[in-house]
Structure formats: structure tokens, C-alpha cells
Write a structure and sequence with these properties.
The chain is mainly alpha-helical and about 120 residues long. The chain has one domain. The chain is about 50% helix and about 0% strand. It is built from 4 helices and no strands. The model has no long low-confidence stretch (mean pLDDT about 85).
């Protein structure tokens, strides 16, 4: 595996991020639900790199300049927002609360009606 330190910050937020074969396979395995522990961690770490939303890969969204810089700032902030929403799901305060069996059934029916995948409860 290529050393993660090879992942470099880009001068402009729209430039393609660094990646290697391990990242490609990890993201594909995560997407298909077949990723092992190491691949899961690599894919999530790479997502944090791409979005600049972790402490390790923090990227200031603000870009200096005129109207073009404003567009670059907006682009960078959009990427950062995605990463922060991912990290938010790891925060203890958003852990789902225990719900009754009837509430679970209603949620399952709504998800099914909306054509959304069914989610199994994690313990």
C-alpha cells in the first residue's frame, strides 16, 4: 500500500485527488459491501482526505481573490460539507434512540414505499 502521506493537498479544490490501486479497490469493495476491515478504514480515510474534513487532512475552504476565488471557496466548502456530514454520523449525540416495535414497522413501511433499502439495526 502506498504511504498515506503521499496524499497531497491540491492548490484548487476541483483538482483530482491523489489515489492508488489500494484506494480504488477499497472504495469499490466498500461500495459493494465486501470490504474487509482494512479496506473500510482506507476508504473512509480517503474520503476524509478528498473532502478535507478531518483533522489530519484539514483544508481551509476560503480562497483569496475576486469572483473566481468565491467560486473556488464555494466548491471547497461543498466538499468539506460532505465530509463533515459523514463525520457527524460518528458523533455519539446522533446515535439512534431506542424505538418501539410499532415505530420500527412504520419506518420500514415508509422506506419500502419510498423504494429505499431496508436497514438492519446495529447493536
Amino acid at each position: 500500500m502506498t504511504a498515506p502521506t503521499a496524499w497531497r493537498a491540491k492548490a484548487q479544490p476541483w483538482l483530482p485527488p491523489d489515489y492508488d490501486d489500494d484506494v480504488v479497490y477499497a472504495v469499490r469493495a466498500l461500495t459493494t459491501g465486501t470490504a474487509n476491515d482494512g479496506q473500510q478504514k482506507l476508504a473512509v480515510r480517503w474520503l476524509m482526505y478528498v473532502t478535507g474534513a478531518s483533522e489530519e487532512f484539514a483544508d481551509l475552504s476560503f480562497r483569496v481573490g475576486g469572483a473566481e476565488a468565491q467560486r473556488a471557496t464555494d466548491f471547497a466548502e461543498g466538499k468539506r460539507f460532505v465530509g463533515l456530514q459523514w463525520r457527524k454520523m460518528l458523533h455519539p449525540l446522533v446515535t439512534p434512540k431506542a424505538v418501539s416495535g410499532e415505530q420500527k414497522a412504520v419506518t420500514r413501511r415508509r422506506r419500502r414505499a419510498a423504494g429505499q433499502p431496508q436497514i438492519t439495526e446495529q447493536t
